Amino acid sequence: MKQSEMLLPTLRENPADAEIKSHQLLVRAGFIRKVASGIYSFLPAGTKVLRKVEAIVREEMENAGALEMNMTALQPSEHWKETGRWNTFGPELMRLNDRHNREFALGATHEEEVTAIIRDEVKSYKQLPLTVYQIQSKFRDEKRPRFGLLRGREFLMKDAYSFHSSNESLDQAYERIFQAYTNIFTRLGLNFRAVIADSGAMGGKDTHEFMVLSEVGEDTIAYSDKSSYAANIEMAPVVDTYEASTDQPKEREKVATPNCKTMAEAANALGHSISEGMKAIMFKIDDEKLVMVLTRGDHEVNDVKLKNLYDASLIDLASEEEVKAAIGAGFGSLGPVGVSETVEIVADHAVKGLANATCGANEDGFHYTNVTPGKDFEVTHYADLRFIQEGDLSPDGEGMIQFAKGIEVGHVFKLGQFYAEKMGANFLDENGKNQTLIMGCYGIGVSRTLASIVEQYHDDSGITWPKQVAPYQVHLLALNVKKDEQKELAERLYTTLKDEGVEVLYDDRKERAGVKFADSDLIGIPLRITVGKRADEGIVESKVRSSGVQSEVHENELVDHIKELLKEL
Predict the structure, then answer these.
(1) Which H or E element spans position 359?
(2) Is 543 within the bounds of a domain?
(3) pTM score, two decimals?
(4) pLDDT at position 261, please?
(5) What percent of the chain lies above the pLDDT cut of 90?
(6) Which of 18, 334, 369, 506 is geometrically suited to a Cys-Cys bond with 494, CB 3.0 to 4.6 A?
């Protein structure tokens, strides 16, 4: 492709709203353009990269036995209402009405739609197992779109769904897709980890996220420094190694602590370490039940673990008004002593080992000292309810926990029978009996993956695309097209490279050499071939974008030289 005929508008300055490198560079290099907040169009070069990412995804999904299909983006509300997610999915679901006032949603995900299709078309165990997938735009009304393609309101996703007659069959499909994802992200050249995760609003129990390691990631990965263990921080269990205090319980005392709203402030005022305090936070379970959760003062409540403990659909912090109505005090003064029986008390394992601890006195401006579980209050249930911390023992018993930031690019779920039961998706088994289908779900954020590649492949001058997804393999520059010898050699090389099957972008523009070099570095094509002062000798300069390694090559040796370099990249 000749660059003079290419829609590749480069910019010298970063967009004002671009906070991270992938957003900045994809806009500046002419790969994407913003249409509205969280909504981007892919220009020709960006589309070429996107299609190459898609090709790798398709190849590995089909190797795993998945069949491609294409479902509608516009979904009737009836299917969402069958599963109850029309009300529970939240404001991220983009809803609209047609001219007949029928309710629709723009597809945020396709569990309901694919289940409806399979419910109508699959009737027998003989048609199972079955795995289908699509690559399609998804729509979610993010409250705060940010980071360009990493958190948008419209994005490209590969979503797959598997259907089974047994859990053993689901396990086998899960392993196949897990391996396919490992292959995909490895082939894309990404530094990633597969981590244990929470399924969230998608349902299901067993699930893993594929996380690209990056400091701009919005998720925290807890991983062992000695083993392959890795989990999303929300899901990493804490090993219960707490030893009970040997201190003799003392008499409880109420102490005035004016203006102490946090554990740190209370600990400082009372002259003890924050780990000697008990933190109490009130949650509302499924909009009904009030639960007080206790942790040690230096620990934080993990709301995902709390949700799983109660097998709840929804948990949220109780409002200060609700807390005052139930306890009689506001935030910062809550504690478990003397709490009404209408409020259930659950505690993290670390709490049961405390003695003579500090906690809120359920009276604004006061705390209790010398509070001991079992003596001063009773706990309904002890469980692992806190976030894991760096330095904790790894859950697999090997090494200690460290943290890293990650960008979620893939997620695999064992959904079980949630959607099939809600929507009546059944099949006849070998004995002619009606059984409920078992499902798996597997997603890759394709456009998010593209941005993640840029986060890992760039330098101060621009993008450094890995060859497997680069829009072109070679960037051919004619530094001065007004000079016949340069233009003629460049045109000759352009034709030769195309004939040899090399993807080449030919910069034939009437621009200064400095502009061409800067644009080439910004765009990030793996190899640059420069036709310059020695064109009359048939000699050009080659440069590897990622390493900066340069060499002079005669035109007769150039094709072999390029093919050899591409093999090494």
Answers:
(1) strand 357-360
(2) yes
(3) 0.87
(4) 84
(5) 91
(6) 506
Segment holding 161, helix H or strand E: strand 154-164
User: How many domains in the chain?
Assistant: 3
Indicate the length of the chain as a whole number.
Answer: 569
Pairing between strand 381-383 and 344-348? parallel
Residues 6+ apart with CB under 8 A from 343: 282, 290, 291, 292, 326, 327
Pairing of strands 95-97, 32-36: unpaired
Q: Are 562 and 553 in contact (CB under 8 A)?
A: no
**How many other C-beta atoms are found inside a 10 Å radius of the C-beta of residue 153?**
19
Q: What is the pLDDT of residue 457?
A: 98
Pairing of strands 67-68, 253-256: unpaired
Report angle CA 136, 141, 147 to the nearest 5 degrees. Answer: 80
The residues near 331 (Cβ < 8 Å, ≥ 6 apart) are: 261, 320, 323
- The label of the residue with tokens 């620990």 reads 299
Residues 86 and 56 in one domain: yes
Burial class of residue 401, CB neighbours in 10 A (0-12, 13-18, 19+): buried
pLDDT tens column, 502-519: 999 999 999 999 999 999
Backbone angles phi, psi at 89, to 5 degrees: -65, -35
Q: Residues 106, 139: contact at Cβ < 8 Å?
A: yes
Residues 557 and 438 in one domain: no
Residue 318 and residue 427 in one domain: no
Are 411 and 522 part of one and the same domain?
A: no
Structure tokens at 191: 């530094």
Give the residues of the chain that fall short of pLDDT 70.
Answer: 199-205
Q: Which residues constitute the domain of residue 39?
A: 3-236+403-454
